[in-house]
Specification:
Helices cover about 40% and strands about 15% of the residues. By secondary structure, the protein is an alpha/beta fold. The protein has a 6-stranded mixed beta sheet, with helices on both faces. It has a 4-stranded parallel beta sheet with strand order 5-4-3-6. Helix 3 packs across helix 4.
Length: about 350
């Protein structure tokens, strides 16, 4: 399935960059992030040629893909005069760790409402960093992240009563998601230029992603008219089909950039077969992927997102879905602090 199917001419990188530059943004990330060839990993898997886009190197509090996204969201928050950021996710959330770090850098208060999830109040990994960075943290029972929006909205109302000026980063709000996804249209532009410098064209871009990141990448690929297939390996199952949700976010993102197209679920490739038992629980395939990448390339993946995405890529290669003469870019979206909360799960002793 080619994501680039379109009825309008492709844009140049310069034109698309100008559309992105029209949207307010604050600088938080170290960009561009490196694009590295992974020859020993490619050899271990018998081809294809694998490259890794190192968005674990964005720099803010151990880095990760969220830092790019927060550049646009914090710009909006500052424009609105916010003094407090309210958001939530699971207790080992990369999103919340990077949000808290960005708030600290910009002189704002971070208020987090976290679902207990698998690791609960274990003061390790991302939750440890949330506290170190100064977040106000409330952990609520349950694992379903979709329970959080009403709690976040109630917290925003309470803060307003106290005279604060809160900005809500709703993890399920289309406005939040589509604005954040602009960051990965920009990341696709950055990657496209790097591939050109290397004399390469990517047949596939693989990533962990359930919404924002694959949506932005899909918009970028379609806007430039590239033949690359964007493949998301989702780490979580939600009630709504991922392709439907990602296509809706991508279409809203395209509208923000004044692009004359929409994306349909049929254009989105998202594979949920590597989640395992449920979100946040490691699988044997994830363990294998973590060890293989660490021991061939010296690159550390995480146990919740990139480890499962790499497990999906490895399985797709072994199934013959990707040919040995093709080129794959794996987007490393970060998340490595969570490793320290999963020490027992790694079974390394």
């Amino acid at each position: 399935m080619n994501i680039q199917a379109r009825s309008v001419p492709p844009l140049s990188r310069e034109t698309l960059q100008a559309r992105i530059d029209a949207i307010p943004r604050v600088q938080l990330a170290h960009l561009p992030t490196p694009l590295e060839r992974c020859p020993r990993l490619s050899e271990a898997l018998g081809g294809p040629e694998i490259w890794m886009k190192r968005d674990d190197c964005t720099g803010l509090a151990f880095g990760g893909n969220k830092t790019r996204q927060l550049e646009f969201l914090f710009a909006e928050a500052l424009e609105q005069g916010a003094d407090t950021i309210v958001t939530g996710a699971g207790s080992q959330s990369n999103w919340c760790r990077q949000t808290t770090a960005a708030a600290a850098r910009l002189g704002l208060k971070a208020v987090l409402i976290l679902a207990h999830s698998i690791k609960g109040p274990l003061l390790q990994g991302n939750l440890l960093l949330d506290h170190l960075l100064g977040a106000e943290v409330t952990i609520v029972p349950g694992e379903d992240l979709q329970q959080l929006p009403p709690l976040l909205e109630a917290k925003v109302a309470a803060l307003r009563q106290e005279g604060r000026k809160p900005y809500l980063m709703n993890p399920f709000g289309l406005s939040t998601l589509s604005l954040a996804a602009v960051a990965y249209v920009h990341a696709l532009l950055e990657l496209d230029a790097q591939l050109e410098q290397c004399g390469k064209e990517a047949d596939y871009i693989y990533m962990a992603g359930a919404n924002i990141t694959p949506a932005g990448m899909a918009v970028g690929v379609k806007a430039l008219g590239r033949h690359t297939r964007v493949v998301g390996i989702t780490p979580i199952r939600w009630k709504e089909d991922r392709a439907t949700d990602i296509a809706r976010i991508a279409t809203a993102t395209a509208q923000r950039l004044k692009l004359d197209f929409t994306l349909t679920p049929e254009e989105i490739i998202n594979d949920d077969r590597y989640v395992g038992e449920r979100y946040g629980i490691m699988t044997p395939a994830c363990q294998e992927a973590l060890k293989l990448v660490a021991r061939t390339e010296g690159i550390i993946l995480d146990p919740v997102y990139t480890g499962k995405a790499m497990a999906g890529l490895i399985d797709h290669i072994r199934q013959g879905r990707i040919q040995s003469n093709e080129t794959v870019v794996f987007l490393h979206t970060g998340g490595t602090p969570a490793l320290f909360a999963y020490a027992d799960d790694l079974a390394l002793a």
